[in-house]
Write a structure and sequence with these properties.
Blueprint lengths: L1 H23 L2 H18 L9 H19 L3 H5 L17 H18 L4 H12 L4 H8 L3 H26 L11
Helix pairs in contact: 1-2, 1-3, 2-3, 3-7, 5-8, 6-8, 7-8
GO molecular function, one term: sigma factor activity
Pfam families: Sigma70_r2, Sigma70_r4_2
Family: Belongs to the sigma-70 factor family. ECF subfamily.
Length: 183
């Protein structure tokens, strides 16, 4: 079991952390939740049937850990809507060139700000589909949903993001044409 557990940790630790970081918007809390996820994995691995990939199984556990965290928080809805402090918590990409980094950081900031207008389910779908690059089928397995529900939630999420990104961009006077959100 130790080698299997170590293998899971090595393969997916970064992805699970990133998912939880986007969900809770706090580095320290995301680290705590990652530990909680791997405790749950350690306790439940014998029940893993292999009906989904290990990665989608881990994301399912991570999502449930995040939901449990929000349920325990007093006023969790308010915490979800708190502003993100980009000066202390940054999303980093190891390989892009400096110009790409600048553009990516601005786009990520806008998307991240607009994610606060999405519901928890919508945010989960966006993170799994676009930040973790899971397929619709994998996302459905991770969330315990049908593929149809994932597609519908994704469509609604993108509408919410597009609407609020257009508002932010127009407010900042960055562009006058409509913002395109696509995959």
């Amino acid at each position: 079991m130790d080698s299997v557990f170590d293998d899971l940790y090595q393969k997916y630790h970064h992805d699970v952390f990133q998912f939880l970081f986007y969900m809770v918007r706090n580095k320290e809390q995301a680290e705590d939740l990652v530990q909680e996820v791997y405790i749950r994995v350690f306790k439940a691995y014998h029940r893993f049937e292999g009906k989904s990939s290990e990665k989608t199984w881990l994301f399912s556990i991570a999502r449930n850990a995040a939901i449990d965290y929000f349920r325990k928080q007093k006023g969790w809805k308010n915490r979800l809507l708190e502003k993100f402090d980009w000066s202390t918590n940054q999303v980093k990409d190891e390989y892009p060139i400096p110009e790409e980094i600048t553009v990516q950081k601005e786009e990520i900031k806008w998307i991240y700000r607009c994610l606060e207008f999405c519901s928890l389910d919508q945010r989960s779908v966006i993170i799994l589909r676009y930040l973790q690059d899971l397929s619709i089928a994998e996302t459905a397995q991770a969330l315990g949903w049908t593929e149809s529900k994932v597609k519908t939630t994704q469509h609604r999420s993108l509408k919410v993001l597009k609407k609020h990104m257009e508002m932010f961009y127009e407010k900042e006077g960055l562009i006058s044409e409509k913002v395109r959100v696509e995959r």
